[in-house]
Amino acid sequence: MSPSSRRVTVLWFAVLRERRGLRSELLETAATTPAELYAELSARHSLGLEQRLVRVAIDGAFSTMEARLMDGVEVAFIPPVAGG
Amino acid sequence: MTLEPIPTEPRVEVGAGAVVTFDGRVRNMNDGREVVSLEYDAYAELAEKEGESILQEAMRRFGLMEASCVHRTGHLHLGEVAIRVRAVAGHRREAFDACRWILDEVKRRVPIWKKEHYADGESDWLIGESVAPAPSEYYDRQVRMPGFGPEAQQRLAEASVLMVGAGGLGCAALPYLAGAGIGRITVLDDDRVALDNLHRQILFEAGQVGRSKAVIAAERLAKQNPLIRVEAVEGRLTAANALDYVAGFDLVIDGTDNFRTKFALNDACVSAGVPLLVASVHGFEGEIMLVDPNGLGGCLQCLWPDPPEDGCVGTCAEVGILGVVPGVLGLLQATEAIKWLTGLGHTLGEGLLLVDLLEVSTRRLARAKRPECSVCGSGKSPAVQWTIEWHERGVRMLIDVRDPAEIALQPCPEADVALPYDSFLARLDELPVADGYALVCRSGTRTEHLARVLHQQGRTEFVSIAGGLRARPSGDQVSTNGLPGRL
Q1: Within a domain: A83
Q2: A69-73, B274-278, B309-313: range with lowest mean pLDDT
Q3: Tens digits of per-residue pLDDT, B175-198?
Q4: What number of CA atoms fall less than 13 Å from residue B345's CA on the CB side?
Q5: Which among A58, B28, B104, B141 counts the fewest CB atoms within 10 Å?
Q6: What is the CATH classification number for the domain harbouring A20?
Q7: Cβ neighbours of A76 (radius 10 Å)
Q8: B171 → chain A, closest CA residue
Q9: Is the pLDDT of residue B402 over 80?
Q10: Is A84 inside a domain boundary?
């Protein structure tokens, strides 16, 4: 692990889970915020859901896309869900 | 088979393809005892009034051409007709359904008592189907739960709940809310039953396709628990009318399937100070949260400051749904509702519960109120921004948003135009051009809501008159020079 990168667990939900094809993954990233991380993963996996429509939770609590990403955290990306 | 014409009743319209007549007759056995005759007693004035309203309702509900019902009173012998119901419709289904419905409603609602005379010389007044069960027995099993007791039951009996949407979530939550004894349940839905609903919307039957979901759901619940009041409202909740729908309820449950309605509901519930249980589903996953206007978790818009547009992630119609998923989430809503209303246990509080039924796992994420939220926080731009006092209206065009009936009772002669609250946002374009618009209603609640919604859309030329007509200086009230022009 390079000094400027961190290891995070990413959790995917609903439509993002379908598009990513995974429930969770452990990865190493140079991203310093959830926004950067989402941009990176969205581009890599063609997630096709604008960032403004995605909410992030870090270690079980809703956070902001600009929060500081620490090593070892669990990052959940949550798309809006409307079905009923 | 016959070649001869079948005798018909002469008075039926040619468009009437189906005439169903039902005769209920005195039979010789009931409950294993031999019956020799019957006696019917009725509270005639009330019975006829109630009967008339059942027939009127049947005409509307089933689109009948004719409906009639006759009930005997007095002493009847075996084989005599006790009740005759007749329904005339274009097609057989409506005629059969209506006939059955009228009969059931008459038995349930009309004050008629029946006494049976038996072969052994005894006789008995029978408990009609309209007689409500004993609450102590009905709720026995839940009242005896530790920590529940008659107090919790009483809290439920005094509670009112609005279920918005009788779809997958609503069909699961509603029977348990009714069974638990929530005193007043209102089911709001403008949708009709479709075949592709039935795998998940378990209150409906294949034979009910095309009928109103709210009406059928309410009928089912009323039969399930005659101790509670159930009301069907066939309407669609929008940003403009949401406040009217939710105001006054103890709890609102979101069973809708689109963002527009969910956010309108969130907005209205926060405005009215009514807690809201929001749930949504996607594939095998679902989520549920409680928006408590007095809580620390904030509202739906705290989570999504910029509400998503419908279609951005697909609806049940587009991406499919397993029936049991909204079922589970609807049951969670019912559970949380009962807990909230009785004060038992811990409710969802500031959490958002994510449920994954494919992996059988749940995850609870902590929510926090966003202080600057435009619905529940300071971003609710101080009311001042879109509120003015009566005397500050200046050159603005004055618009009365009350219903015509309200205006007739208490005219507001100063108003330039009337455009009712319900259709206000939809008919905005019809307003004459003016240098700003001041909206007035009775107390300022409806106009405050309209002005806020309009400001959120950037339409800052609309302002609400604080306190409505109640705040109008009394000197102004004597003039009665006519009603405003109606749009």
Answers
A1: no
A2: B309-313
A3: 999 999 999 999 999 999 999 999
A4: 11
A5: B141
A6: 3.10.20.30
A7: 24
A8: A84
A9: yes
A10: no
Instruction: Report the pLDDT value the prediction gives residue B480, as an integer from 0 to 100.
Output: 36
Task: Tell me the C-alpha distance between B190 and B188, whole Å.
Answer: 7
Q: B152 by DSSP, 3-state: which?
A: helix
Measured CA to CA, the distance from residue B237 to residue B355 in angstroms comes to 27
Name the residue range of residue A74's domain. 6-78
Q: How many CA atoms lie within 13 A of B94 on its CB side?
A: 19
- Examine residue A35 and state whether it is found in any structural domain, yes or no: yes
Q: B74, B154 in Cβ contact below 8 A?
A: no
Give CA separation, B51 vs A70, B24, B70, in Å. 72, 16, 9
Which residue of chain A has the CA closest to B302?
A62
Query: Are the CB atoms for B87 and B76 separated by under 8 Å?
Result: no
Measuring CA to CA, which residue among B386, B382, B405, B390 is closest to residue B468? B390
A·B CB contacts under 8 A: 91
The answer to whether residues B453 and B428 touch, using CB atoms and an 8 Å cutoff, is: no
Domains identified in chain B and CATH numbers: 18-126 (3.90.1170.40), 138-366 (3.40.50.720), 383-486 (3.40.250.10)
Distance CA B209, CA B392 (A): 54
Q: Do B285 and A18 touch (CB under 8 A)?
A: no
Of A18, A55, A62, the CB nearest to B283: A18
pLDDT digits over B271-301, tens only? 989 999 999 999 899 999 999 988 899 999 9
Rounded (5°) CA angle B285-B274-B283: 10
Q: How many CA atoms lie within 13 A of B270 on its CB side?
A: 27
C-alpha B433/C-alpha B3 separation (Å) is: 72
The beta-carbon neighbor of B315 closest among A49, A61, A83 is: A83
Domain count, chain A: 1
| Chain A contact present for B189, CB below 8 A | no
Q: How do residues B344-384 score in pLDDT, each as one tens digit?
A: 998 888 999 999 999 999 999 999 999 999 999 877 655 45
Specify if A1 maps to a domain. Answer: no
Chain B residues with beta carbon closer than 8 angstroms to that of A80: 259, 304, 308, 312-313
Q: How long is chain A?
A: 84
Of A23, A53, A83, the CB nearest to B282: A83
Cβ-Cβ contacts under 8 Å, B319 against chain A: 15, 83
CA-based end-to-end distance of chain B:
62
Structural tokens at position A9: 């667990």
Which chain A residues are closer than 8 Å to B303 by Cβ? 55, 62
